[in-house]
Amino acid sequence: MKVSLFITCVSDIIFSDVGKNTVEILERVGCEVDFPAAQTCCGQPAYNSGYVKEAKQAMKQMMQAFQDSEYVVGPSGSCVGMLKEYPAIFKDDPEWQEAAVDLANKSYEITQFLVEVLGVTDLGATFKGRVTYHPSCHMTRILGVKDAPQTLLRHVKGMEFIELPVKEDCCGFGGTFAVKNPEISQEMVKEKSQHVSETKAEYLVGADMGCLMNIGGRMRREGKNVKVVHITEILNSHEQGGGIA
Amino acid sequence: MSIKLGDRSYQERIETGIENDFMRDAVSSAQGRFRNGRITQAAELGDWEDWRQLGSEIRTHTLENLDYYLQQLSEQVAKRGGNVYFASTAEEANAYIEKVITEKNAKKIVKSKSMVTEEIGLNQQLEKMGAEVVESDLGEWILQLDEDPPSHIVTPALHKNKAQIRKTFAEKRGYNGSDSPEELAAFAREQLRKDFLSADVGITGCNFAVAESGAITLVTNEGNARMVTALPDTQITVMGMERIVPTWEDMEVLVSLLTRAAVGQKLTSYVTSYTGARLEGEIDGPEDYHLVIVDNGRSKILGTEFQSALHCIRCAACINVCPVYRHVGGHAYNSIYPGPIGAVLTPLLDGYEDHKELPYASSLCAACTEACPVKIPLHEQLIRHRQIIVEKEKKSPVTEKIMMKGFAQWASTPAAYKLSTKLARTALKPWTKEDTIKNGPGPLKGWTNVRDFPAPAKQSFRAWWKEREKGEINHDHS
Amino acid sequence: MTIHNQDAFLSNVAAHLGRPRRMSGVERPTWSVRPQDRVFAGYSKEELVAILKKQCKAIHTDVVEVSTAQLPKALLQAIERYEGKTIIAAHDERNTTYGLEALYEQLGEKMEVHIWDAQLGEENQQIAERADIGISFSDITLAESATVTLFNHKDNGRSISLLPKSFIAIIPKSTIVPRMTQAAQQLHTSVEKGEVTPSCVSFVSGPSNSADIEMNLIVGVHGPVQATYIVVDD
Known about the structure:
By secondary structure, chain A is of the alpha/beta class. Chain A has two domains: 2-116, Rossmann fold (3-Layer(aba) Sandwich), CATH 3.40.50; 126-235, Rossmann fold, CATH 3.40.50.1860. Chain A contains 13 helices and eight strands. Chain A has helices at 9-13, 16-28, 44-48, 52-65, 77-89, 94-106, 110-117, 137-142, 148-154, 177-180, 182-199, 209-221, 231-235; strands at 2-5, 32-34, 71-74, 107-109, 126-134, 157-162, 203-206, 227-230. In chain A, the strands form two sheets. A four-stranded parallel beta sheet of chain A has the order 2-1-3-4, with helices on both faces. In chain A, strands 6-5-7-8 form a four-stranded parallel beta sheet, sandwiched between helices. In chain A, helix 5 (77-89) packs antiparallel against helix 6, helix 7 packs across helix 9 (148-154) and helix 11 crosses helix 12 (209-221). Chain A starts with a strand and ends in a 10-residue tail after the last helix. By secondary structure, chain B is α/β, with parallel strands linked by helices. Chain B has helices at 10-19, 21-45, 48-64, 66-79, 90-104, 115-119, 122-128, 138-146, 162-173, 181-198, 224-230, 248-263, 317-321, 323-328, 339-350, 367-371, 378-391, 398-412, 414-427, 444-448, 461-469, and strands at residues 82-87, 108-111, 132-135, 201-204, 208-210, 215-220, 234-240, 244-245, 270-275, 288-294, 432-433, 436-437, 453-454. Chain B has a six-stranded parallel beta sheet with strand order 1-10-7-4-2-3, with helices on both faces. In chain C, the strands form three sheets. A six-stranded parallel beta sheet of chain C has the order 2-13-8-5-3-4, with helices on both faces. A four-stranded mixed beta sheet of chain C has the order 9-6-7-10, sandwiched between helices. A two-stranded antiparallel sheet of chain C has the order 11-12. The longest helix of chain C has 14 residues, at 45-58. In chain C, a hairpin with a 4-residue loop joins strand 6 and strand 7. Chain C is globular, with a radius of gyration of 21 Å. Classes of the chains: A alpha/beta, B alpha/beta, C alpha/beta.
């Protein structure tokens, strides 16, 4: 199966390991991965701020970049969720409407793709450590993916899994919200950090680097020793002895 | 009062909210209870999504045919001996009510909780003309004695604690009991009972008007709305024009959604459906009945992308799940309609000028959209508002505009984007220490004031991919 | 009776909806789902009684189930438990059917028992205000929410279930339906037949309550502070 990686700008620039792990996982389950280099950002920062005209420029770039792809798979529920909104955004634009529908229909978040398209639930991963999971808002509520990440995590050997209290609460990231309303965002992330501490987890796992960058950044500032990892890092972990340096 | 509560700036309101520890504890614990109640009740039904779908279909159909159903309602009410007044504005509504009160030479008016009367500032108008107005919902009564606005649309005094309430009762009504909630409530019962019995006019809002028969349904737990509708000889119902359903069957569905979504109850203690004036030989109920149907900006929402905001049944489920509301409290919204639905409705009803920050007071986490029992896409409507603020109202900051223009350039030019993936780490180097930025420049400052920002990767993903393609990195996993 | 400003107001609504005014011919569509019909569908009366009893616990309401013959005794016990000195009851033909007239007469010797009397006008309200207990028959009983539906009329004032400190509802088993859906259907049918619906339909579920002070549940605010249901096997 041919899969095009949608890296997301955050993982391209800041968290490149997420992309490497995603590629390796996809190849392990037999996918042929390519990386259309013309891809940029899904447009969400502008779109969610009300700059639809500006967002559309990014979106058009993305539609072009992935026009020949069979499947588009990315390591972020939020960014993939944005692609899924394209048809509504371009519904009155005859030139782009078809491409928008096409891209939305073939795009998947990585755990969603593994479980729902490939039917893979066990990647044979081993990971030693006490882990909790934050289900990101856009992943669960906009993309509607609730079970896939947890299904995959359940099959990881050696891991101790602790449920995060009030896990469905937003961490306060919200893209530009974090910089536009820093006071409120701060209170939200403090609360999330507190909930993570309550689990006494060594690792906080998530499927969206935006949220993880926010929670992780707060916990580091608080001097907490919790490691923040993207789910692909766990799912791609095979060392006996587990853990991440 | 009107929709807007006061003149404090957004920043000031947010800070006051965040600093109010009692309020935040109270709101947080209330949200927990509301959320559990709603989730338990929804789970018990087993098919909550079907219920939401049905609720949404009923509201959609009703709003699409609003003129027809309002006509039917008004004719049914008139047939049952009631007067109906269609008020385009708050001023018209208040003037009509004042006229009724003057004609009755009424001195005392009892009210049951009604958001629309808050919206049109009715109490202030009536007090100006010398009438005594008594709010009879326990929470509203507390606020009235304390001259404080509501902070929640279902439990208006959520931000007050029992010690504050005891003090208010003592100062305003000579209460000398303890601060036990039971004792405070018993005192309110005794005080307000006198008002119910001596009132000349009763005024209520309306949860759902049933078009087919002219019945007005009120949903309460305390029983005050029953008192207000049973005892005074003159009764006035004030309803927002969208608070209507076609038939009793539709009313039932929406009441079932409302009580579950609002307070996690199968039904509230009282669901009361009253129609027009009392019938021949009846003693309870008004002999003179008036229904005031209020537009006050609602019709402007019809036919727009915000029409579904008028589906709202005022359950506050969106407020009860909102993390922003939890931390800043209801007063920070500076509107009688707080929370996500408030952030959507307030600029529509009262303009963007005074409320342009509200659509941004959301992380767009969509918890509100998920909780809404009639499926209003609240977070999407917040994005629409932002778009209007940027494109039509032109009220977004200049620096933001410049940044977004830059964003569009960057994200639509692969070469520029690629260059940035190469330069990002170097560009941030002056602020980076041990791969962490603790005091970022420009727009990063809001971020790094409260949390660390990671330094960009040493090698971007695309650089790694390129190397790998050239065969410089091992593909093999076996 | 008058309707003011209707035309201008509704024409404006229609204009904003972007079409001519609709004055007739609007039909409710067939909804895509009807979850309300599925709730307790096909349940027997006994099963519905069991649901009602369970829900009574949640709404702080005492409930007993008796035969017709036991009803007067059960009612007397409830009155005694509430230490009733003044009682007000609806003027309901079921008082005769269920043999309550004799009980009320007998009780009248040691306490004030008032049967609602439309002829007395406002005095009924005054008695209800000082009464300790109000007694009504349920017209339709909703199992799911443990709700008694009262069709108020000239012989069954709204005050009876509202002003006294305690409320006793007599629930003939035959009145029990799964939920509010069935009561609403009955009212809708009645409208369609052109009948005059009651000036007030009160759906009452237990005593009054409030959570307005620090979210503490306070049972008993403006309406009755306690309630008992007596389910009668009719």
